[in-house]
Amino acid sequence: MQKWIMSGLFFVACALAIALMFTLPGKEQVAQEEKPTMPEVTLDAAAAEATLKASCISCHGDQLQGGAGPALNQVGGHMDANAIFNVVTKGRKGMPSFKDQLKPEEIANIALYLAEKK
Q1: Which segments are annotated as binding site?
Q2: Where does the signal peptide begin and end (predicted)?
Q3: Are 22 and 44 found together in one domain?
Q4: Residues of the domain holding 11
Q5: What are the pLDDT digits (tens) for 81-110?
Q6: Which residues are part of a known binding site for heme c?
């Protein structure tokens, strides 16, 4: 009887190991999630402003002067577009991630727009 129980536990452990091998992310996927790549976009200032008004002003203010979140009206002076893209995509400290609310192209457009604010 013990042999059957041990064999059953061994089978379950092997099945779980195989399932995890195929469902856990690989090194490349983890690296991509840690540092997302900003897509190539052309700056569309009007679209960036519209997205900022829809998604950002509640925390960063209507003139990007700050509020619950930091001021963004001069963020381009100390962050480049890629850094801004990473923060908006992944979130940081109290800021949530926007990767599920905005398309990567929209985030890239915002990043280019804010990078010009110096």
Answers
A1: 56, 59-60, 95
A2: none
A3: no
A4: 2-26
A5: 999 999 999 998 889 999 999 999 999 999
A6: 56, 59-60, 95
Tell me the one-letter amino acid at 72: L
Q: Which residues contact 85 (CB under 8 A, 6 or more apart)?
A: 36, 38, 107, 108, 111
Q: Which of 117, 94, 113 is nearest to 105 (CA)?
A: 113
Mean pLDDT of 41-45: 93
CA 32/CA 13 separation, integer angstroms? 30
Tokens of 19: 């399932």
Bridge partners, 95 (sequence order): 92
Tokens standing for residue 24? 């856990």
Does 32 score more than 60 pLDDT? no
49 and 90, same domain (yes or no): yes
pTM: 0.71
Counting the structural domains of the chain, the total is 2
Retrieve residue 60's tokens: 């960063």
Q: Domain check: are 21 and 40 in the same one? A: no
